[in-house]
Amino acid sequence: MKEALFYKKSDDKNVDCFLCNHFCNIKNGQVGICGARLNKDGALYSLNYAQLVAFNIDPIEKKPLFHFFPGTTAYSIASIGCNFKCGFCQNWQISQAQEAKELQMKTVSVSAKDLVRQAKSRQCQSISYTYTEPTIYFEFAYDCAVLAKDKGVYNNFVTNGYISKDALKSISPYLDAANVDLKSFREEFYHKICKAKLKPVLETITLMKELGIWVELTTLVIPGQNDSDSELFAIAAFIAALDKNIPWHISCFHPSYKFDHRIATALSVLEKAYLIGKEKGLKYVYLGNVHTDYGENTYCPSCSGMVIERMSFSIKQNHIEGGKCGHCGEAIAGMFSV
Predict the structure, then answer these.
(1) CB–CB of 295/284 below 8 Å?
(2) I want to staple 290 with a disulfide (CB 3.0 to 4.6 A). Which of 35, 127, 183, 252 is the partner?
């Protein structure tokens, strides 16, 4: 165990945790909502520091991050824990601490120094803190990110966006990019299904932009839950008002976990969302978890020429030159290898 960051001791050995927007008050001997931070005799400890439940080398497109060094690989890691309780979670076996415990999921101890060394030796352009919620293993992610930055390795979060403002600001000098799940645009959805709130997620996305972190957003479209025209319009409008250069990944739902009895998202619904994004002026809209001839490709917002052709997380063609369209010279938003 490692003593946690972002907490304050209170009366009777209780502690207040300020790592995420739940702001848990944790009694002695108890854990927070995430299940990964323990109050032991009035001090808060991270239970998953340097304990990895998953580590792989992935294409950066799998995060998905399409405008962050496309075609490179990310050393992808996760520790057990999440501060959301989404019934449709694709990685519930490791994101939900209680489920992971019951399934006896194994973890491997890895130091921050060794992890960065491994990422560097495997020629990964970045480290991706992913699969579960990186906020919940913040202390380890922070230590890795600082070392990685010093070694010329970039850092990205795949996150639900529930990190507190103070925690985000502290890691922002080392965090280069993030894909944030914008799961819905209704408080009811977040309260009922995620056991969280929408407003802090919107504030996180906005703050990330202000801090200079490259941001892409993903919405998993679930039939009967967040697929109405009005909600999709609201999400697209929010993104457009913040920055029309933010890529929006519209992802197909497949039955999983507590939502295993539901049907997958129809392609027509995803295509509708795609057109809504374009109608609102978003320059980069993508379809995920489903195959189309256009949904994974990047098109120039000026000349409409295809600048990146993708298939199954791999790049077939790349016509971006120095961050610009190779056809007309228009700047393409993002971070690209020179």
Answers:
(1) no
(2) 252
